[in-house]
Amino acid sequence: MTSGEPIIRLAAKGDGITASGRHVPGAVPGDLVDEGGALTPGPHHAAPACRHFAVCGGCQLQHADDTVLGEFVTGRVVNAARGQGLEPEELLPVHLSPPRSRRRAGLHGLRTAKGAVLGYREGRAHRIVDLAECPVLHPALAALIAPLRGFVAAHGPKAMVGIDLTLADRGVEANLLHFPLEGLGPTEAALDFARAHALARLTVDQGYGPETLWEPEPVTVTLSGVPVSLPPGAFLQATADAESRMIADAREWLAGARIVADLFAGLGTFAFGVRDGRKVLAVEADQAAHLACKAAGARAGGRVLALHRDLFRSPLQPAELDRFDAVLLDPPRAGARAQVAEIAASTLSRVVYVSCNPSSWARDAATLAQAGFRLTKLRGVGQFRWSTHVELVSLFER
């Protein structure tokens, strides 16, 4: 008979934890650990999907099955809320993105004496894991790993470079970072690479911003049926399925609202998703994203209007917010402390808050609660599969 102390939950960084508070790397709930640290896998301990797991820093939870992954995501967002004394009135089922669905990635490359290495950094280290596979990435991105390694080997500098990949409507956009292409030969090789692999766009950033080398047709990304110009480096939700899930929630929760403000709107992901039957003001600080949203809004019938404004330095004031029936916000990881304070002081009664950081969201949620808002709906979203990175979508009403 197997004996040992059971693992009861996962810590925020992915370690298994026993009832006595012992942290056990590589363990999941249902596993048993003995006094010497030997682990007996339980029913939820899965075989990792990637040969690089436990070395690559990209994934922390490939040894957990979907039941544990779902509980981890839900637990993170619920515990963040409870840490501020909040309890969701309705906790919705977690959404987990499937393998091979990630449509953007940031890789690192380094030319070596024997060629090149290309991949993510190791966990808690700067060394690059030379990827042979990546079951997280969309196949269109994964297919470029080996060719990009060859390009770095042939033309890369003797220093670490970055390669950002994004799947757009007509193919993959690649942005080479800290990657000088000196002379005609390397530049022609880059163009040949883009042509051979049917890239939608190839840009090079040598420290002065991305310069486009190859873009046979304007690059777009379709958001809820609306083609929107995709500026180099623009933010995009990591997976299309998670984007659809969060938009569906927002659309349902905004029922009856005729005029909505979408704050930190980016390219208009949510603005275009909820525009049917209402007008949406999309507010964004990044000029390139704002202009892309503005142009797409005009082409899509004028239901989405765009406003260029830095909501960190100049948040919408209560008198401005009071013109809307509801507000949706999807801020960066830092949250929206200043803007949420103005929302709390307004007469708004409905707020849809999408977040990529449960901690900053919980801080802002406490401000809303103090102003009389209730956390009526909450859903955890695990679009960074097998990662400890957690997102959520929530509804506040008063």
Q: What's this model, at a glance?
A:
With 398 residues, the chain is of the alpha/beta class. Helices cover 26% and strands 27% of the residues.
Number of helices: 10
- Mean pLDDT score: 95
For this structure, the CATH topology of the largest domain is Rossmann fold
Residues in β-strands, percent: 25-35%
Number of E-state strands = 22
Largest pleated sheet: 9 strands, mixed
Radius of gyration: 23 Å
Q: Can you say what the CATH homologous superfamily of the largest domain is?
A: Vaccinia Virus protein VP39
Helix amount = 25-40%
Structural class based on helices, strands and sheet pairing: alpha/beta
CATH architecture group name of the largest domain: 3-Layer(aba) Sandwich
The 3D shape can be described as: flat
Describe this structure in words.
The chain is α/β, with parallel strands linked by helices and 398 residues long. It folds into three domains: 1-45, no CATH class; 70-98 and 236-397, Rossmann fold (3-Layer(aba) Sandwich); 104-219, OB fold (Dihydrolipoamide Acetyltransferase, E2P), CATH 2.40.50. It is built from ten helices and 22 strands. Strands 6, 7, 16, 17, 18, 19, 20, 21 and 22 form a nine-stranded mixed β-sheet that branches. Strands 9-8-10-11-12-13 form a six-stranded mixed β-sheet, with helices on one face. Helix 1 runs parallel beside helix 10 and helix 9 runs parallel beside helix 10. The model has no long low-confidence stretch (mean pLDDT 95).
